[in-house]
Amino acid sequence: MIYSLELKKAFTVSIPVLMGYIVLGFAFGLLLTSFQYPWYLAPLMSIFIYAGALQFVAINFFNAKVGFIDIAIASWFINIRQSFYGLSLLKRFKNSGKLKPYLIFSLTDETYALLTTIKDDNTLNRKYFYLFLGLLNQFYWVLGSTFGALVGSHIKFNTAGLEFSLTALFVVLCIEQYKNLKNIFPFLIGLVSSIFSLIFIPSDKMLIVSIFISLIMMFFFKKGIEK
């Protein structure tokens, strides 16, 4: 098989993502069908949107009948970190040719973490290794979310608290970021901004306002954060 070595290496590297995406994708599919949405919406969202955190948030957007402008703004802020991921991988994706659009599309938090921690293997065709890594990770997510949606559409049980899986995901990401940065100040800014918005801002605008406040405070205290 052509590029079998790249595929084998990509699968080996992606096993930790497999373990996480199957479980978290299952939770997403289960949560989606618990709100009486058809099961096939889960794989469609996972194929064409493929943004774990945003997909969880989208369920609440649908239920609250949030306007398109609010959804667009919130989506942009939730996924704005991907822009910085892409900038740091410009050199790696430079010679990927026609594969580049998908490599950009498939750049999730976990895929980025793998790409930035593994060492380049000169025996591999890198662009196809990157391709297989992105495809496998998305496949795990689609598989998990589809299975969860199918189970949820046929078996009814109490899903109370399942939406906390999104919060748990962000908590884990937050802890990992703190381990890398070793700087508590940005996290305190986020905490203060969130508490302020939670108390004084209506719930449907709370997320956007808290992000705006965090950004303003980050710029205002830029020198302190950098130190």
Automatic annotation (TrEMBL):
Q: What do the Gene Ontology cellular component annotations say?
A: plasma membrane
Give the bilayer topology: Multi-pass membrane protein
Q: Which residues form a coiled coil?
A: none
Cited InterPro entries:
Brnchd-chn_aa_trnsp_permease
Keyword annotations from UniProtKB, A to Z: Cell membrane, Membrane, Transmembrane, Transmembrane helix, Transport
Q: Does the keyword Cell membrane apply?
A: yes
One family from Pfam that matches here is AzlC
- GO BP annotations listed: L-valine transmembrane transport
For this UniProt entry, which segments traverse the membrane? 12-32, 39-62, 68-90, 128-151, 157-175, 184-201, 207-225
The compartments listed are: Cell membrane
Q: Which family does it belong to?
A: Belongs to the AzlC family.
Extract the PANTHER family matched here: INNER MEMBRANE PROTEIN YGAZ
Name of the featured protein:
Branched-chain amino acid transport protein, AzlC family
